[in-house]
Task: inverse folding
């Protein structure tokens, strides 16, 4: 019987963001499942549309027995606190030690599978995943296979590559292939269980510049072209079991190895090296195309209003620098102020909505007042950015409560089908014809249901502002007439060259 130890640890760390990820953040989960351990973890995560869910399905087909440890995930933010990191690592290490010692009638372990994000930075451990892997290797030894799945935005380090038998990253952004990545990880592990470690070779190349988050979208070039080349090369070299990856990096983690990495595995060293080099050349040759031109809030709103006048579908504006999926707190008011200043509500007949605005106090007040009530609120808040300056101040407004909810939201979108989000007391309020969706938990606007649960039908709107960078495109691109990206003040730099880097390698440029 093949026994596989499984655990998950997800955090995407923006070291320039205002809020850390403490132990409470992992217990809350928010956009992730809350912290779980043991059989409960497996029951919770196996059906989910995430990598560990895909791996569990493949394991069941192969007759593998999974030995569950910990699932730990928290919303992107500043560093994982030392306390939280040590608790998570401590429990995973303890579980592994126990599983390896449990040889009575079950033969210990045959391998380890880890569902990792790959871009975590903890207090005292810049390479958080590498630190976890080193602790596991110290117990498991050098021969036990360790395979990991990664987020597309992983900052892959030399230590991560050295300590794992194989890793595989998402190939889509928006991430609609998370479960498929887990299936691929299971196939990679099966190959390594069938042949000794020395039968395969690995090669990696680091890209000499950071990639803006918005440019990493695989629905368009140049990212789409690199992914297509990966699939082409793998198909051409099946005889060498070629496995290729493009980890595009999370360009807001201030440590030396932040940035994109191309890496691959196979049975023929020359083929692996040649394929990775070809991918590297494709990324570097496209360097000018990775650069972005973003709109100011005012220009984005005026363009959207003009476009919406003749459109039969909504115009969507991404508030990319307040993306809670990248370290923002989803509470800045730059785009809301621009909507109100442009009188967008009146000009578009009240068919304007913005969400989700993380504002527990205003959401609670609106829920207490109830639908139909009118009340005075301070919407959003000013937060510090990497420059030390504050974002726009809260919006003082008299609003009308349109709808309230307990914030328990079943999701059905392309990234989230089958999941349920818990946002706490939530409300939709109308301010001068603009509908603002308030929530008591941070969540990226990546699903149409995150409008619908408060009575807003997104397909009937003229203009939608979403707190997201790219993930929203999976659900919103099919209903949008146009998509614009705005650069309002916020904690997540759309252009990594704007950030005050202190520890980034001198071999890596902060912008393409």
Result:
């Amino acid at each position: 019987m093949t026994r596989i130890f499984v655990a998950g640890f997800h955090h995407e760390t923006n070291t320039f963001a205002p809020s850390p990820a403490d132990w409470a953040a992992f217990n809350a989960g928010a956009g992730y499942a809350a912290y779980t351990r043991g059989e409960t973890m497996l029951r919770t995560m196996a059906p989910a549309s995430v990598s560990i869910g895909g791996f569990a399905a493949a394991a069941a087909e192969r007759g593998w027995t999974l030995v569950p440890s910990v699932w730990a995930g928290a919303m992107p933010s500043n560093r994982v606190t030392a306390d939280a990191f040590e608790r998570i690592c401590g429990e995973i290490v303890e579980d592994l030690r126990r599983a390896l010692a449990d040889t009575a009638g079950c033969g210990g372990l045959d391998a380890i599978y880890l569902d990792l994000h790959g871009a975590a930075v903890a207090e005292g451990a810049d390479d958080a995943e590498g630190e976890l892997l080193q602790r596991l290797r110290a117990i498991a030894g050098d021969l036990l296979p360790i395979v990991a799945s990664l987020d597309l935005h992983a900052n892959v380090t030399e230590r991560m590559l050295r300590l794992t038998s194989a890793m595989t990253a998402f190939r889509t952004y928006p991430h609609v292939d998370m479960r498929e990545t887990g299936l691929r990880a299971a196939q990679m592990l099966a190959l390594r269980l069938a042949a000794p470690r020395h039968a395969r070779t690995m090669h990696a190349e680091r890209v000499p510049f950071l990639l803006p988050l918005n440019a990493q979208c695989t629905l368009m070039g140049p990212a789409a072209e690199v992914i297509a080349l990966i699939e082409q090369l793998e198909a051409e070299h099946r005889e060498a079991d070629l496995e290729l990856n493009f980890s595009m990096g999370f360009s807001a983690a201030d440590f030396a190895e932040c940035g994109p990495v191309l890496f691959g595995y196979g049975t023929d060293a020359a083929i692996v090296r040649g394929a990775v080099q070809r991918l590297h050349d494709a990324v570097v040759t496209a360097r000018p195309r990775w650069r972005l031109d973003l709109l100011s809030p005012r220009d984005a709103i005026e363009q959207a209003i003009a476009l919406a006048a003749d459109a039969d579908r909504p115009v969507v504006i991404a508030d990319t620098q307040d993306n809670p999926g990248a370290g923002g707190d989803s509470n800045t008011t730059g785009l809301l102020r621009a909507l109100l200043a442009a009188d967008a509500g009146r000009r578009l007949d009240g068919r304007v909505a913005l969400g989700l605005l993380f504002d527990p106090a205003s959401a609670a007040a609106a829920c207490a007042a109830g639908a139909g009530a009118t009340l005075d609120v301070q919407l959003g808040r000013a937060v510090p950015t990497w420059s030390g300056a504050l974002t726009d101040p809260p919006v003082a407004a008299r609003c009308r409560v349109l709808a309230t909810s307990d914030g328990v939201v079943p999701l059905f979108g392309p990234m989230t089908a089958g999941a349920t989000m818990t946002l706490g007391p939530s409300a939709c309020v109308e301010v001068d014809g603009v509908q603002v969706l308030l929530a008591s938990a941070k969540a990226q606007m990546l699903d149409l249901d995150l409008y619908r649960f408060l009575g807003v039908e997104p397909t009937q709107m003229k203009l939608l502002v979403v707190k997201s960078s790219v993930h929203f495109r999976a659900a919103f691109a099919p209903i949008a007439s146009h998509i614009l990206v705005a650069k309002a003040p916020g904690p997540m730099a759309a252009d990594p060259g704007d950030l005050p880097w202190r520890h980034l390698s001198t071999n890596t440029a902060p912008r393409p």
Remarks:
- The first helix runs from residue 23 to 28.
- The first strand starts at residue 3 and ends at 10.
- The radius of gyration is 23 Å.
